[in-house]
Amino acid sequence: MRLIVGLGNPGASYAHTRHNAGIWVLERAAARWGIRLSRRGTAQRGSGRLGSELIELAGTLDFMNVTGPPLKGLLRHFQLTADDLFLIHDDLDLEPGRLRIKRAGGHGGHNGIKSVVEALGTSEFVRIKIGIGRPAPRQDSADYVLEPVTQEELDVFEPCLERAVDALECVIHRGAEAAMNRFNVRDHQSAIEE
């Protein structure tokens, strides 16, 4: 079984904020794979299959900064380890619409990741990062991630969110290394611009 967790904050007031990019991917994965998400406390959860793999989807387990303990409880409930965890989250250090897959590493100032690493006692799990870009000069990062995205930003995010579901499928079927080789590249136009 694979546990796929999309990080975000619960409640309608946070649903369209940059910090909930992990939830947006989770919802698209559920729709594509025919997995029904339902509310269980603050969490959205659903079970299903992707080919021969059993999948458990979970999002908004609690507020972002205290995600670790409920996630640890979920792993324990399903008798899984961090090796079975795929975590989807926003990333300030990637420009909007960029996708990056990473196995292990630090929290990079992301309090949700910090909470998970502290709770699990390891950083050895797969992350699917969705770039949201940096705030304007002198704008606080905490305010920026909690702002709703504009329609213009959403147009940039949409292809990335779909590619993130493609990346999840690749990680599940072919492993993290194959997914990193395939998805951690800039598109042809970006390469030309550099």
In words, what does this structure look like?
The protein has 194 residues and is an alpha/beta fold. It has one domain (2-193): Peptidyl-tRNA hydrolase (Rossmann fold, 3-Layer(aba) Sandwich), CATH 3.40.50.1470. Helices cover 39% and strands 21% of the residues. The chain has 7 helices and 7 strands; from the N terminus they run βαβββαββαβαααα. A hairpin with a 2-residue loop joins strand 3 and strand 4 (53-59). It is globular. It starts with a strand and ends with a helix. 37% of the residues are buried.
Estimated helix fraction: 25-40%
What's the SSE pattern? EHEEEHEEHEHHHH
The CATH homology group name: Peptidyl-tRNA hydrolase
Rg: 16 Å
Number of domains: 1
Number of strands: 7
Mean pLDDT: 89
CATH class call:
Alpha Beta
List the helices and strands and how they pair.
Layout: E1 2-6, H1 21-33, E2 38-40, E3 43-50, E4 53-59, H2 68-77, E5 85-91, E6 99-103, H3 111-120, E7 126-131, H4 141-145, H5 151-174, H6 176-183, H7 188-193
Parallel strand pairs: 1-4, 1-5, 5-7
Antiparallel strand pairs: 2-3, 3-4, 6-7
Helix pairs in contact: 1-5, 2-3, 5-6
Protein name: Peptidyl-tRNA hydrolase
Organism: Nitrospira japonica
Subunit structure: Monomer.
